Amino acid sequence: MEKKCLLDSSFIISCVNKKIDFFTFLRDEGFSGSNILIPKQVIIELEKISLPISIYGRIAKEKETAALSLRIILNNVFDKVDLNVSLIPSLKRRTVDNLIIDYANAHPDIYIASLDKGILKKVKNKKLLIHGRKELGYH
After folding, report:
1. Rounded distance, CA 73 to CA 119, Å?
2. How far apart (Å, rounded) are the C-alpha atoms in residues 113 and 128?
3. In the predicted model, is pLDDT for residue 57 greater than 80?
4. Helices in 77-138 by DSSP H: which ranges?
5. Which domains does the chain have, with CATH numbers?
């Protein structure tokens, strides 16, 4: 079975901030483009953060990082997954973090790349984390 890894916005943004080439790392570790999963909801989250007038009240540096994150992911091969697909309509307003937790728990064989402690505590999946300043590794 092929390895798959789901990326969260916190992981993507932090890698971009630290100038870590996470796509090259994932390819070198045996994840092909179609096995690098980025939720549609994460892309929307990055788009909202990068807006010139953001409802999130972000500072210019965060907006620039989110915009660069979008450019990086859209210039690489990955599989966009919709975490809402399997939910009944009344549950479609869940947070991105809760959707990632539900997806991870339904797919225990995938790796989760996140820095969000709330997500990491609630999933038993293998995790891809940033160690130190510029090192990626598994936990």
Report:
1. 21
2. 5
3. no
4. 96-106, 117-122
5. 5-138 (3.40.50.1010)
Q: Cα separation of 6 and 110, whole Å?
A: 7
Six token digits for residue 5 = 């890894």
Q: Which of 83, 88, 95, 89 is nearest to 119 (CA)?
A: 95
Strands of the chain, DSSP E: 5-7, 36-39, 79-81, 111-113, 127-131, 135-138
Query: How far is it, in rounded angstroms, from Cα 120 to Cα 115?
Result: 7
- Residue 23: phi, psi to the nearest 5? -65, -45
Return d(Cα 72, Cα 23) in angstroms, integer: 9
The two structure tokens encoding residue 20 = 């870590």
For residue range 13-32, list pLDDT tens digits in order: 999 999 999 999 999 999 98
- Contact of 6 with 112, CB cutoff 8 Å: yes
